[in-house]
Amino acid sequence: MNLWRAAAELLRRGEAGVLATVAGTRGSTPVPAGTKMLVGADGRLAGTVGGGCVEADVIGAAAEALRTTRPLLVTHHLNADLAGDLGLSCGGTVEILIEPLVGHPAYLAVLDAAAGERGIVTTATAWPSGPDKTFAPLDAGARTVAGAELSGDRTRVIERLVPPPRVLVFGAGHVGAAIGRAAHAAGFRVTVVDDRPEFADPARFPAEIAVWAAEPEAAVARFGLAAEDAVVIATRGHRQDAEILARVAAAPADYVGLLGSRRKKEVVTRGLAAAGVPADALARVRVPVGLDIGARTPEEIAVSVVAELIAWRRASSHPPQQLR
Predict the structure, then answer these.
(1) Which residue pairs, CB below 8 angstroms and at least 24 apart, start in 185-194?
(2) Are 101 and 11 in contact (CB under 8 A)?
(3) How many helices (H) and strands (E) does the chain have?
(4) What is d(CA 282, CA 321) in angstroms, rounded to the nearest whole number?
(5) What count of Cα atoms within 13 Å lies in the side-chain half-sphere of residue 138?
(6) 136 three-state secondary structure
(7) Pairing of β 189-194 and β 210-213
(8) 248, β-bridge pairs
(9) Which of 112, 117, 260, 315 is the most buried (most CB within 10 A)?
(10) What is the pLDDT along the chain (324 residues), one digit of tens a residue?
(11) Location of each CATH 3.40.50.720 domain in the chain
């Protein structure tokens, strides 16, 4: 769930709420800086800032922030919580900014911008004259790592927002649909494509997943693959797979994966090599796509594929399995 968008929707419904953001961490902590939780009048609505007593404290402070319409910066030491709950002693400290949602047009505009754009959000930790929150867009080509930090003087929380990678899934059958849903649940921006309208039916997917009934050439052109993107090919047959792979193997997308057996790999490889697809383009394709966990059902296969997508997203250093 996009908590920026959820917060904006809460405001538009005229409901009260608080946005809690992990502004900084020290030592070993359960969540990184930038993690958020949305709190409503009756408690946590979505997200998490660490669970247990941390969230209990945040929910308690949220009532104070709602009452005063002023933000609070709270510090929570995790040693006792984790030692008691998990038998661990992490020694970590989490600093959390708790800000009341304010129905001010400028404030709402920041939430809207943060929900869908690359940028930097800066929030003051004190609001003596009303909400103090700004958004500055980042150039599309700028290399930025998502995260948050508390300024040295503790007066501002600076958040760097980078939208999650896009995943283009070809094939809306049982496996392709399961991959699309699992990738969405893991936080990717997902588009599912199938040339069969009865399969490319938005009603089969969560509303946040884009679903296109399109031929591969049109879909690739419309999507506009970039280096930060991933492609997963899970169609109904060799011919469709080969047609799509011929178009995306040499595309800028950093991750290209093909679902299939060893036999399918051999057939597709021979056909594409004969058609003139460069060997280096084929060599980077991950096939069989996904981690080898013995998956059999569509849902298990989706878990294996999305696990590999997560590893790629977090590290971007895992060498692809090769077509051979």
Answers:
(1) 186/306, 186/309, 186/310, 188/164, 188/230, 188/306, 188/309, 188/313, 189/163, 189/164, 189/165, 190/166, 191/166, 191/167, 191/223, 193/168, 193/169, 193/219, 194/170, 194/235
(2) yes
(3) 10, 14
(4) 10
(5) 19
(6) strand
(7) parallel
(8) none
(9) 260
(10) 789 999 999 999 999 999 999 998 887 777 888 999 999 888 778 888 877 778 888 888 999 999 999 999 998 887 654 444 444 445 578 899 999 999 899 999 999 999 987 899 999 999 999 899 999 998 765 566 788 999 999 999 999 998 889 999 999 999 999 999 999 999 899 999 999 999 999 999 999 999 999 999 999 999 999 988 999 999 988 788 888 988 888 889 999 999 987 677 777 777 787 778 877 878 788 888 999 999 999 999 999 999 999 999 987 533 444 443
(11) 166-315
- Strand pairing class (166-170; 156-161): unpaired
What amino acid is encoded at 64 in this protein? E
For the chain, the C-alpha Rg in angstroms (whole number) is 23
Report whether 200 contacts 219 (CB < 8 A): no
- Per the listing, tokens 């590999």 go with 308
Phi then psi for residue 253, to 5 deg, are -50, 130
Task: Label the pairing between strands 43-47 and 72-77.
Answer: unpaired
Cis? peptide before 288, omega within 30° of 0:
yes
What token pair was written down for 139? 């150039």
Contact assessment for residue 31 and residue 22, using Cβ atoms and an 8 Å cutoff: yes
Beta partners for 130?
128
Helices (H), 168-235: 174-185, 216-223
Task: Report the relative pairing of strands 36-40 and 17-26 from DSSP bridges.
Answer: antiparallel
Report whether 303 contacts 295 (CB < 8 A): yes
Looking at domain 166-315, its CATH class is: alpha beta
Residue whose pair of structure tokens reads 């509303």 in the numeric block: 207
How far is residue 69's CA from residue 131's CA, in Å, rounded to a whole number?
9
CA distance 131 to 57: 23
Residue indicated by tokens 């980077």: 284
Q: What is d(CA 99, CA 107) in angstroms, rounded to the nearest whole number?
A: 11
What are the CA-CA distances from residue 79 to residues 6, 31, 46, 74, 83 (Å)?
32, 14, 25, 16, 6
